[in-house]
Amino acid sequence: MSADYDITETLDVKGQSCPMPIVKSKQAIDDLESGDVLEVVATDSGSMSDIRGWAEGTNGVELLEQVESDDLYTHYVKKTD
Q1: d(CA 10, CA 33)
Q2: Statement: the pTM of the whole predicted model exceeds 0.90
Q3: What is the pLDDT of residues 47-76, one digit of tens each?
Q4: Residue-wise pLDDT tens digits, 3-49
Q5: Which of 74, 73, 80 is nearest to 58 (CA)?
Q6: Does 19 sit behind a cis peptide bond, omega within 30 degrees of 0 on the bond before it?
Q7: What is the pLDDT of residue 3?
Q8: Which of 6, 24, 33, 49 has the CA that lies 20 to 30 A from 66?
Q9: Which residues of 17-43 are buried (b: 16+ CB within 10 A; e: fewer)?
Q10: CB 22 within 8 A of CB 57
Q11: DSSP string, the chain
């Protein structure tokens, strides 16, 4: 896990497959304030490309980092507006 971010909220989507990690990430980020960081913890390897694509195509969202460790995929997403 990265210690470089002040994590506001952690979203556990382990065991869920596409599109649920994206759907739940969007719902969670909508509830945060600008500058907040959402940590998303998933077990779906497809979440690496899915969350990257969602963040790149969504205004107000910045993908800070993605970490793959064992069978866990952790994403750090910042709300920018």
Answers
A1: 14
A2: yes
A3: 999 999 999 999 999 999 999 999 999 999
A4: 588 999 999 999 999 899 999 999 999 999 999 999 999 999 999 99
A5: 80
A6: yes
A7: 55
A8: 33
A9: eeeebbebbeebbeeeeeebbbbbbbb
A10: no
A11: --SSS-EEEEEEETT--TTHHHHHHHHHHHTSPTT-EEEEEE--TTHHHHHHHHHHTSTTEEEEEEEEETTEEEEEEEE--
Token digits of residue 68: 């793959």
Strands 7-13 and 37-42, sheet pairing: parallel
Catalytic residue among 1, 18, 23, 72: 18
Asked if pLDDT for residue 2 goes beyond 60, the answer is no
Give CA 71 to chain center in angstroms.
16
